[in-house]
Amino acid sequence: MPDYGHDLMFSVNLMPAADQPDAVVALVQRAERDGLDLVTFQDHPYQPAFLDTWTLLSYVAAATSGIRIAGNVHPLPLRPPAMLAQAAASLDILSGGRFELALGTGGYQDAIASMGAPRLTPGQAVDALEEAIAIIRAAWDVDAPGPITHEGRHHRVVGAPRGPRPAHDIAVWLGAYKPRMLRVTGRLADGWLPSLPHLRDPAELAAGNAVIDEAAAEAGRDPRAVRRLLNLAEPLPPERLAEIALTYGVSVFTLIVRDPRELRRWAAETAPATRELVAAAREGKTAPTPTPPDARASRAAAPLTAAPLAAVPTPDDGVRLSRTRVWDESTRPTGPAPDPGRHYTPAEQAAGQHLVDVHDHLRAELAQLRDLVAQVAAGTLDAATARSHISEMTMRQNNWTLGAYCESYCRLVTMHHTAEDAMLFPRLRRAEPALTPVIDRLEEEHQEIHKLLDRVDRALVAFVTDPAALDGLRAAVDLLTDSLLSHLSYEERELVEPLARHGM
Length: 504
Known about the structure:
Helix content: 40-55%
Number of helices: 16
Shape: globular
Order of helices and strands: EHEHEEHEHHEEEHEHEHEHHHHHHHH
Structural class: alpha/beta
Largest sheet: 8 strands, parallel, barrel
Oligomer: single chain
Number of strands: 11
Strand content: 5-15%
């Protein structure tokens, strides 16, 4: 599927919790300070635990100055279109042109009906949405002659005045999944806004795009006029997001966020790395492995001539702290030996070195983990605090990985997705089939290490209630240390040179 060429936008979807209004507003302000493009809120007026979304949007518009705002999404049956058009235009004016309008037919019919709205069949809900879009656009079209008149089956407007004029051309985004709603999106909307949890797999974006593009073309529209957005329930790595952007045309990624740390990682790490990958691909270059900001200056200054590979895999020192073995290291496959006379370009050199850099970061975190456990054992740190620190470590996140290049694959294996949905490992398999046994073994070891991380977490929980469980905690950390350090060395030994040679 095509890349529609839109600039990438990174967004968050925040829970409008009524019992934590200050925290909600603080997260919005944090999102703006961290450079995100958009902040959104779900709109469920029948949920008493939530703030009213329109009131919240107005409040955060006044509390910010640059970030865009939107609902995600507004249930049309509870928002009459003539009033919705005026509210949207007013908020856009007050915010300086920062509001976008995301609409849906309403997915919770019982809850919607409980608030007095008519109960509609799915077909009727789509009819009502089409009518509403026509009314909303007519209200914003202040240059058109005469008042608004619409005699529809679900909405009736007779002689209503147009206006006010929005501060900018407000985009209308539709949350859509079924074929008919997708066709409405292609004909009438400015954006398609599905959620990945509701799609079984990102590959379903391709089918949705096909319906939208066909409907747009039939209506005389350029399919590129419909921006593709995607809600994410949990973070994906930059490589995976870049693949989704380039393969399925998604240009707005919105992550559900609940705390500042997750927001900061999304804004400061994931967003710039994804932009770098997509920009490189659009320029016709092999997409580089994202690099931290402090590494970019040295890369820019690198000589243009090729040279022998400087990235040196970290050797396994053979030290083991535990008598237990998670796997038999003697059965690890080995890939083809590299050409000793080959030279590598600066970009290839950086690709090979990046894997070592990522692993060095994980080795440092492992040392930090061991230090935390030592502090717990010495009585200078309580186990609950240690567990909180560990939860912030890169290797203990939901999307933990043993190398940025393979993060999407590790996730997809766990979720039982197919290898075709990953990015780098399938490319390595295709580029060099002889590496397949190595990649298979690495995937198996990733899963075993994930289990060891869970074991450390359980050991910490046990120690909170039973100080006698300290020996179990130490044993769990020792086994993780043996396995992780051994695995990182093996992975570097087998993949540093192929990653450089294939420009990955």
